[in-house]
Sequence to fold (362 residues):
Amino acid sequence: MGRRKQGYKAPEGLVRIPKSPYWYIKRVVLGKPVFKSTGTADLIEAQEIYHMVMTELLKESRSHTVNRILGKSVPFNFIVERYLIEISPSKSKAGRNDKNASKAPLSFFGESKIDGISKQDIYKFLDWRKNSISEKTGRQISGPSVNREKSFLSKIYKFATRCGYITENLVAGVEGFSENRRERYITDQEFELIKTNVSEDVRDIIEALYNTAQRPGRIYNLQWKQIDIEKRSVVFENTSKNKRVPEVLWINDVLFEVLMKRKRNRRTLSPYVFYKPSLKPYSEFDVLKAWKKACEDTKITGCIPRDLRHKAITDMKKAGFNDAFVGNVAGHSDPRTTKRYTHFSVEETKLPLQALERRTKG
Fold:
């Protein structure tokens, strides 16, 4: 292409795309550019089409405003767009999760009127999604992934109900898919083997994971301002509505040594306890990558860093602490969750059953 003439002004809202003779209408939807072909290479004709399209969009936008005031029907994607802008901004982690969870529902429901979607349609969406293949992994979408999208749908329906577009949350009462309970318990020997086959930074992280029994994200993003070395305590902020954390956690000797070592070797003003050369905190992917390499080298199978939380909870239960104590450390609001995290082996049944044996024999 040659240089544009002086004074050249690009046609409003229209662009040319390489290898296509047609003019395209460019719009921004949910923060992303969307291109729609006018089907013509003639600029004047393309401009007429553009103005007709924009006129229709303006009418639709005005009708949305009227419908919002009157509480009448609006498209599903309009509600999602409002929700992501007003309730769940993408700068937060929850916002990014919501934006990812919105992709499949938007693809399925699109411009369907929110009050025209039935509970049967929601079941159809869940079945369609469960039978879909992930572009990223090439495998069938898992039940837990579909459940997260169902949870997002419920948020949208609650928001739509609050705004007056509908009168009830149709997602309430819709069953999700069963989620496989992890039964993997990392033995002490396996834990030691993994620790000896990772870098010092990752070793410190997995020591902290085990010795706090916290969810991995709390440790990966741990900052020095949360730690009081003199009082030997860690303060956690409750940033989730659904997942509770202990307000203050004791620092045991193993974690104390890790923190003191990292404090002595600290050569930067990074606020994070565990950080990469870029000064950014280690991500779940960074730790998982190192963990998998260590497991391959040591022929250990079927475990992930998150299983250290299961191990810590199980080990505290084995040490004789009840669900109330262990649940408080782990941040469980429901004692049933603590029980679900506890894994006992056959050996752990030996002593209780021997006690019954002694009573029987007298």
